[in-house]
Amino acid sequence: MPVTIPQDLPAAEVLKQENIFFMTKERAIHQDIRPLQIALLNLMPNKIRTEEQFLRLLGNTALQVELTFLTTATYQSKHTPISYLQTFYQTFEQVRGSHFDALIITGSPVETLAFEEVAYWKELTEILAWADEHVYSSFFVCWAAQAALYHHYGIEKHLLPKKLSGVYSHTVKQKGHPLVRGFDDFFWAPHSRNTAVDETKLSSVQDLIVLSDSEEAGLYLAASKDGRKVFVTGHSEYDELTLHDEYQRDLAAALNPEKPLNYYQGDEVTVRWRGHAHLLFSNWLNYHIYQSTPYQLDQISKVLQHS
């Protein structure tokens, strides 16, 4: 949460120069507080584990969040019982008339397919179009980031020579941007993917800002200039053993995988991305949603039309 200070306090200028967020008392007393309404479109096979990963990050801030879990109607998950989905999830049709402060779309193990070959591609494009008018800020993870970049900006993905798997060092490229506020100059984040997007293509799009990349893993974090679309090509949400379990799965499937880089010390897993993950989500929730979204959710469409 921001620090609240008196109007015209001399320290305000110092705080501003150091990129520390603050709020005047006059502004603070006019703020109403309500739970943030966030929809999570869960495209991962192990939905329960994915729920846990995102809930850890969304629940570690001072902001109150109410989560709505979404699943696709045009594709039935083979790894999650229908009864579970019917109990805890809704489909797009059930929320089409609703508004949300934010939308998260997870990764999906379909990245080697052309986008149009994905079973739920048409439904996903409808959700992306709907989010433009019904959601204040959207957060796209891994394959979903690639899919959203393709849908909104026509940026293609390409197949990597081998799977990118491990924990990689990244550089902050836009230190003054709210989304990376408080980041170290170098930070670690996991990647697990077979495809990538060309960072130079993003740099040529006027609406996009590249915020972080890696010499080894390439593009990591980008956003639209208005903060309404955030693209993360890695998996900051991964828990301690996710990469290990994926590696064991690929070994069992005789895929001859390489060990995830910068992940094991001997036989033990080293977690070095957790602090970054919490800060990334905290910044997104605070600066791109809480400080910007209208108090009345049904006013989102009107606010966006006049922005």
From TrEMBL:
UniProt site positions, description: Important for substrate specificity: S192
UniProt keyword annotations, A-Z: Acyltransferase, Amino-acid biosynthesis, Cytoplasm, Methionine biosynthesis, Transferase
UniProt-annotated site: Important for acyl-CoA specificity, residues: E111
Reaction it catalyzes: L-homoserine + acetyl-CoA = O-acetyl-L-homoserine + CoA
Enzyme Commission no: 2.3.1.31
Domain of life of the native organism: Bacteria
Pathway(s) it belongs to: Amino-acid biosynthesis; L-methionine biosynthesis via de novo pathway; O-acetyl-L-homoserine from L-homoserine: step 1/1
PANTHER family membership: HOMOSERINE O-SUCCINYLTRANSFERASE
Homology family: Belongs to the MetA family.
Role summary: Transfers an acetyl group from acetyl-CoA to L-homoserine, forming acetyl-L-homoserine.
Protein name: Homoserine O-acetyltransferase
Origin species: Sphaerochaeta associata
